[in-house]
Amino acid sequence: MQPFPSALEEDIESLVASGDALAHELRYEEALSRYKEAWSLIPEPKDEWEASRRVLAAIGDTHFLTGAFETAVEALSEALLCPGGLGDGFIHLRIGQCEFELGDLDFAAEHLIQAYEREGDDIFQDEDPKYIEFVLKRTKSLLPEQW
């Protein structure tokens, strides 16, 4: 595979940064538009570029923030398949949160525990406390009875 052109990478990062700023202002539709524009710039096969992970994670995060949990899981699951995706604590956090909200508690636990194992409780700092409480309950239930 050829190296990713640096000018293209700069364009993608600029669009993602713009989308992040819009999301921070709660302008989610505009943010998604920027992320999708960044996605359109990534060459095929898209899942072979690290930039894809970043863009898909941003798309998934934005859908999570708007309550579109199923759509978020789709984007975030694709992000897992990109370079650096598997094991990315943030991606696992968001998938786990979405699955929690969708009621798939076993799948939620799998991803939230992975996020916790990789990042510790710091990754839950700005999140609703129900997620870390869920992780702590689930991990405690995995310990032998005498602990």
Give a summary of the structure in a few sentences.
With 147 residues, the chain is an all-alpha fold. The chain has helices spanning 6-24, 28-41, 50-65, 69-80, 89-102, 105-119, 129-142.
Question: Could you describe the 3D structure shown?
Answer:
- With 147 residues, this protein is mostly helical.
- It has 7 helices and no strands.
- It has helices at 6-24, 28-41, 50-65, 69-80, 89-102, 105-119, 129-142.
- The longest helix has 19 residues, at 6-24.
- The relative contact order is 0.09.
Q: Please report the distance between the alpha carbons of the first and last residues.
A: 51 Å
Note the beta-strand portion: under 5%
Q: Based on CA inertia axes, which overall geometry fits?
A: globular
The overall strand count is 0
Q: How helix-rich are the residues, as a percent range?
A: over 70%
Order of helices and strands: HHHHHHH
Unreliable spans are: none
Summing up helix and strand content along with how strands pair, one would put the structural category as mainly alpha
Total of DSSP H or I helical runs spanning 4+ residues: 7
Give the oligomeric state of the chains in this entry, treating copies of one chain as homo and distinct chains as hetero. single chain
Radius of gyration: 16 Å
Biggest β-sheet strands, sense, barrel = none
